[in-house]
Batch of 2 targets.
Target 1
Amino acid sequence: MKKGKKLYEGKAKIIYATPDKNLVIQYFKDDATAFNNLKKSNIEGKGVINNRISEHILSNLSQVGIKNHLVKRLNMREQLVKLVDIIPIEFIVRNIATGSLTKRLGIEDGTVLERPLIEYCLKDDKLGDPIISKEHIITFNWLSKAQLDLVDGNLKRLNDFLLGMFRGVGIKLVDFKVEFGFTNESNKSEIILADEISPDTCRLWDSITEKKLDKDRFRKDLGDLIPAYTEVAKRLGILHEQSNVTAVNVTKLSSVKKKK
């Protein structure tokens, strides 16, 4: 698929046009950001691993009927995806209290929630991605009630699936955030899951040690982000190299695996 002009560049990805108006190429960058882009760094190999993990998860979601934008992975950093109009909301699902939830409500870090908690944030860095309610979403016509109910249903199914997937490889799914968008097919536009699902967008803890295997390693200056992301990929059966693999080796191995 021929890559056209750059349509959009975000914190972690770049979107390029293709000859097909309904398809775009999503490029995974090595940039790491936190705290609404106040903390930034470039971590070689991060984009490669996130590309592989997100492809693996979205492919599995398609098989269980959760529609998403992935068409196929093109190479070690790029995916062919459906063009969607992103809904300006981050949808967050929490299974264990940590991060901003503990700070806002004074809940002890690590508290297991009785039921999954869904939160909504307006996607606006200048405003600090404020938390909003269902009433905000409906009042300002970001989604209708029926559309929001559809998304909530998908979030619950998605959470159940991810909980099982990660539990099976010894990882706790603490929380995650996702985005949805409207497809651009004029005859049958629908809401589908978009963006990515990776250690950048999920909090993942080892089931026994509770070692963080996600972007909190960058947020909290814990170091070893690439080894942590690689560990997630290895447990999911995506990568098979030794745990001390460097970002360069991850890149090389991804390239080799793509050729097979």
Target 2
Amino acid sequence: MKILVADDEREIADLVELYLKNEGYEVQCCYNGQTAWEIIQTSVPDLAVLDVMMPGMDGFVLCQKIRSRYTFPVIMLTAKVEDMDKINGLALGADDYVTKPFNPLELVARVKAQLRRSLHYNENQSDNRDVLDFSGLVINRRTHECTLNEKPLILTPIEFDILWMLCENRGKVISSEEIFEKVWGEKYLNSNNTVMVHIRHIREKMEEPVRNPKFIKTVWGVGYKIEG
């Protein structure tokens, strides 16, 4: 599998490349956002690891450009620890976020987790509930395709997981904690806004009105439910 690593700190990029290659991945390194974008357009990777603070085109802008055309997983690297930087990255479509300095083995583990999630959608499944269809929304777990009123919705693997979970439990309120622990497979923290950001992103792709969305409803103090 092909992984793109973009970081203007060459020592970090080369270290990440070494660890990923040791796991058998094909890795291509670059040291600025513009070069990364050119590589992506000519050879789409299976996953990208992007530094936030790069000269010229930074990681946020690059992530936004990626999400306008592609759905492969994106992991952001940053030296900043402010929650707003993390939220910005997630709002632009990043799937995970690692703060520098980091343990390379942790990054490798996160890469593997994101690739597993992505590969899941290429597997054939025999479950009769692979397709859910109601009120113009069609979501297919087997092909990882989703349409709304016959218009394709381009969802990241995590966005797809969240939407599938809500659709599968249509009419039932699902807490942010339950969504996070099921989709990310990690312990939920009360201060974690990750689910909220991804819900907002899904609503934007569905072109849902902010004040009165048709499908994904917020049940304040409880969680989210999908209706249609």
